[in-house]
Amino acid sequence: MFQPHADRIAKPLLAAAALVCAAVLVLIIAVIISGAWPALISQDLVVFITDASWYPLEGQFGMLSMLLASLLVMMIAILLAAPMGIICAIFIAYIAPVRVQKIYRFAIALLAGMPSVVLGLWGLTVLVPLVNKWSPPGLSLLLAGIVLAVMILPTVALTSLAAFKSLPIALQQAASALGVRQHVQILKVFIPAASAAILSGMLLAMARALGETMVVLMVAGNVVQFPSGLMEPVRTLTANIALEMAYATDQHRAALFVSGLLLTAMVLVMMSFAARIKGHNDYG
Amino acid sequence: MAEHLFQFVIWCVALLVLMVLLWLVYGLLDHGLAKLSFEFLLSEPQNAGRDGGIISILVATLLILAVTLLAALPLGLASAVWLAEFTATHHFWARKVRLALDVMAGVPSIVFGLFGYAFFGIFMGMGFSVLSGGLTLACMILPVFIRTCEIGLRGVNNSWRQGAAALGMPKIKAVWYILLPAAMPAISAGLILGIGRATAETAALMFTSGYVDRMPESVMDSGRALSVHIYDLSMNVTGGDAAAQASALLLLMIIIVLNMLAYAVTDLWLGRRLSNDLA
Amino acid sequence: MKLTLSFICLMCLSGLTQADNRLNLTGSSTVAPVVMEIAKRFESVNPGVRVDVQTGGSTRGVVDSRTGMADIGMVSRALKTNESDLTAHTIARDGVSIIVHGSNDIMELSEAEIIAIYIGKITNWSEVGGEDRRITVVNKADGRATLELFLAHFSLKNSQIKAQAVIGDNQQGIKTVSGNPGAIGYVSIGAAEYEQSVGTSIKLLPMNGVAANMQTLANGEFPISRPLNLVTKSLTPLSQQFIEFAQSPAVADLIKAQYFVPASR
């Protein structure tokens, strides 16, 4: 195919940039694996994920309950944040008056920049005492999910908004020309048309929720256990790393790197799985 | 009827989210406003940050952010353009890059910290420095930034590409003059998410840019970021709460200013392109 | 792109011209703030010297001083037997006190009661003479010096403890207990005393009849305490000078200001 000169130069440069970005992941994984190595050679990986007792000072490194806790907290967060984030995007894109649009988008951007420490502190000093009144200790799976939802909502909202905004204008004109009401247009035309991009945004948000540390550390209670209910305290893999990394040596430190590896593997599985659902395979 | 219900639900949710934000901001104002002053802004921290101000921390934060954006913006935009415009969706390497980016988005920030410490700090010999912290953050915000930009580019109507091609325009020119401006809402969304993530990050910076609260003299100096300062004051330093809340308030103000700048710059760029088109 | 790279290279080069009179300290997050203040004063009386303090935990202090990443490590506990290659220089002492919520009407708990609460045999305050309220046991995360101190004092193993909340840093402990009327936890005495004095809703319980405060800690009566150490593998003249400065009465006010007891003679 004919290719202008400028493109022949640009294409490899652009490709190089993309490969450099992807290479960062390889480096990250290499760093994690080298850290996890002492634990990986001394114990079967299966034991880490099938055993639930985590007493590092006594040589027990089971991560099953923390693995489950990480997944549950993420699920709660995305179940809350996804519908609300998409609704916020619809609000800005189609419902709000022009002046409100700008202000509201600004508010969402502000929420996006809220430091996780501040969110965690808000959870710990404001929400926990509130919940504590009817269900002590208040530090719980549900609360961690709720605060995380607040944190990832902007990601869902801003990516969905970007998706709505880049829909062809012709689509909007066609939709309104049909004379259907606005809510039908949004629900039956705009959301389906933007669905692939919205889903990508949701995946980013889920990955973010899975990887978040500070918020969970402060509001989840950090007790290593299988939660028997939504109001029970749990410890996630990330909180575990943050709590113990600074104090761990030898096998303990290596085991924490294994949990980093597990988290990365979980995101990988999640992304591949999502790609299947989306129908067209983005990754291969 | 259904129309009204729909509108009602959307307004309710939108208000709810706004209330949560206001609740958060109110808490910060309530505890931090009394402490916030020009003196606080312009003096060096004393007594582990309880007294004095945060000027050195402010400077370090902005330096870190500058390094982050200088590294992430060109690299990110180039990658997004390659993914969206220069390869087929099913191209082998494009799929691998996309998967790598999405997985990277889920790597816990503390792992980024360990990576930055091992790679930039030790392997590249940068030690604890603003540079090491900024580059670590750049790695961290790249996935979200690239994917958001790519989504934006893909969303641009195909007829624009065909038009440019029909005029014999090189693809790269079409990208620069037509597609990037058209994808601007997505790019600014990615930028805002990236800036937000970078200024809010704590765990990754503790291991890379470090804890020293002296005024950084170059990007090779260790410098304490605002978020690290807030974390230390609220979790580690007894009696540091007021200063922590005031610092958090300031961080929010910085984010507001940066967002305004991001809007202004994207608007400017968009405006320039459009006027060029007309001329 | 190119501009960015050359900019970064330039900055790298400018950083390479570093002076020799520079000290690096890493380690315990408890010790870091106080050493940071000492470092600032040291810099002001020794112009031209730079002391960089990094945080990251006691283990990091041990590891970095071993590998030479740091000239001096900061460790918030006594050195262990397998760390005898390092020398500890105590600069301050810290005590660990049991705290409960300010509204709790319990005035004292015996050691046996504390153990029973922490291993989950007693789960309601009414069983130890308090009001009818579920107890929330707040424990520290594995590896923290205060946890090891607590376990050693009560001869417990961490796997025996049935906690409802696990926390990391000291202030997180205080915030968790003050937000929960049924909570019991253990934190630094100085920090707890300060928080109580500014109206935070917590109460320090006496230990074996000894009131928990800075006085009983300073005169050695209070039973649970730990040293805050600077550790070194080998001493350079500059690090020796810094350690002597940190142990001297010239910095006692700084140590007291961070709510610890100075070890200066």
What does this entry show, briefly?
Chain B has 279 residues and is mainly alpha-helical. Chain B contains 12 helices and 2 strands.
Layout: helices, strands, pairs:
The complex is a heterotrimer of chains A (284), B (279) and C (265).
Chain A: H1 5-42, H2 45-50, E1 54-55, E2 60-61, H3 64-95, H4 98-112, H5 116-134, H6 141-165, H7 169-177, H8 182-211, H9 214-219, H10 237-244, H11 250-277
Antiparallel strand pairs in A: 1-2
Helix pairs in contact in A: 1-11, 3-6, 3-8, 4-6, 5-6, 6-8, 7-8, 8-11, 10-11
Chain B: H1 2-32, H2 38-42, E1 45-46, E2 51-52, H3 55-86, H4 92-105, H5 109-123, H6 130-155, H7 158-166, H8 171-182, H9 184-200, H10 203-206, H11 226-235, H12 241-278
Antiparallel strand pairs in B: 1-2
Chain C: H1 2-16, E1 22-27, H2 32-45, E2 50-55, H3 58-67, E3 72-75, E4 87-101, H4 111-118, E5 136-140, H5 145-154, E6 165-167, H6 170-178, E7 183-188, H7 189-197, E8 202-204, H8 214-218, E9 225-232, H9 237-247, H10 252-257, E10 261-262
Parallel strand pairs in C: 1-2, 1-3, 5-6, 5-7
Antiparallel strand pairs in C: 3-9, 4-7, 4-8, 4-9, 4-10
Characterization of the model:
The complex is a heterotrimer of chains A (284), B (279) and C (265). Chain A is 76% helix and 1% strand. By secondary structure, chain A is mostly helical. Chain A folds into 2 domains: 2-42; 47-278, MetI-like fold. Chain B has a single domain (33-278), classed as MetI-like (MetI-like fold). Chain B is built from 12 helices and 2 strands. Chain B has helices at 2-32, 38-42, 55-86, 92-105, 109-123, 130-155, 158-166, 171-182, 184-200, 203-206, 226-235, 241-278; strands spanning 45-46, 51-52. In chain B, strands 1-2 form a two-stranded antiparallel sheet. In chain C, strands 1, 2, 3, 4, 5, 6, 7, 8, 9 and 10 form a 10-stranded mixed sheet that branches. Chain C has 2 domains: 2-93 and 227-262, D-Maltodextrin-Binding Protein, domain 2; 94-218, 3-Layer(aba) Sandwich (D-Maltodextrin-Binding Protein, domain 2), CATH 3.40.190.10. Helices cover 37% and strands 22% of the residues of chain C. Chain C contains 10 helices and 10 strands. Chain C has 265 residues and is of the alpha/beta class. In chain C, helix 2 links the parallel strand 1 (22-27) and strand 2 (50-55). The longest helix of chain C has 15 residues, at 2-16. At the A-B interface, helix 1, helix 3, helix 4, helix 5 and helix 6 of A face helix 1, helix 3, helix 4, helix 5 and helix 6 of B.
